[in-house]
Design brief:
Belongs to the CobH/CbiC family. With about 210 residues, the chain is α/β, with parallel strands linked by helices. The chain has a single domain, classed as Cobalamin biosynthesis CobH/CbiC, precorrin-8X methylmutase (Rossmann fold, 3-Layer(aba) Sandwich). Helix content is about 55%, strand content about 10%. The protein has a six-stranded mixed sheet with strand order 1-6-5-4-2-3, with helices on both faces.
């Protein structure tokens, strides 16, 4: 049997995935020519997962993002997500994956502080001693909170995949992250979401696994 590739685990699935990747590469080859092989793999997976070549134009990574993320993933550091759907999409990771948005403590904290549950979930993660990679695909308020916690020295973040989607606060939060020293991957503008976040982190996990 051929190895799992882009979610494929059968001969037919592998052939479809391989053909898809060939098409993706033909669409974004010129746009990604200046990226490293790892960065290119991440962008390819995002485009493959969304069927949207524009992500090759709007995906931005800090120069230290890949190195810091792969180091964290290879060491099995924790992964923290903003919503359950992002957590559910992460596969074949031997480390812990956390999402506190439905935790009763986060719900109560959100009510007490009059903030979103997504933001409260980040605060709870910090209290719980989170250390690792943060993956945010939906909630700008979670991304703002992570930046606030890192700046205050309350959260030990190795890197952040910050790709919240939407027209209220998403673009602004990603622009703010891009201006920090936190190793990061962002998508410019309102585009993003669960498929993008999941594709990025799964690509890193796959690269780390293949390097071992």
């Amino acid at each position: 049997m051929k190895p799992t590739f882009m979610g494929a685990s059968t001969k037919q699935g592998y052939e479809i995935a391989a053909k898809s990747r060939e098409i993706v590469r033909s669409l974004i080859d010129e746009k990604t020519k200046d990226l490293t092989s790892e960065e290119r793999s991440i962008v390819e997976r995002i485009v493959h997962s969304t069927a949207d070549p524009e992500y090759a134009d709007i995906t931005r990574m800090s120069s230290d993002f890949v190195q810091q993320s792969l180091e964290a993933v290879s060491q099995g550091k924790d992964i923290l997500t903003d919503i359950s759907m992002v957590k559910a999409g992460i596969n074949k990771y031997p480390g812990n994956i956390y999402c506190y948005i439905s935790d009763e403590r986060a719900v109560n904290l959100a009510r007490e502080q009059e903030i979103t549950r997504a933001a409260a979930a980040m605060e709870l993660a910090a209290v719980e001693g989170f250390e690792g990679v943060v993956v945010i695909g939906n909630a700008p308020t979670a991304l703002w909170k992570v930046m606030e916690l890192v700046e205050a020295g309350s959260m030990n973040v190795k890197s952040v995949i910050g790709v919240p989607v939407g027209f209220v606060g998403a673009a602004e939060s990603k622009k703010a992250l891009a201006e920090t020293l936190i190793p990061h991957l962002v998508t410019e503008g309102p585009k993003g979401g669960t498929p993008v976040a999941v594709a990025a982190i799964n690509s890193l996990i796959n690269i780390s696994r293949n390097e071992r």
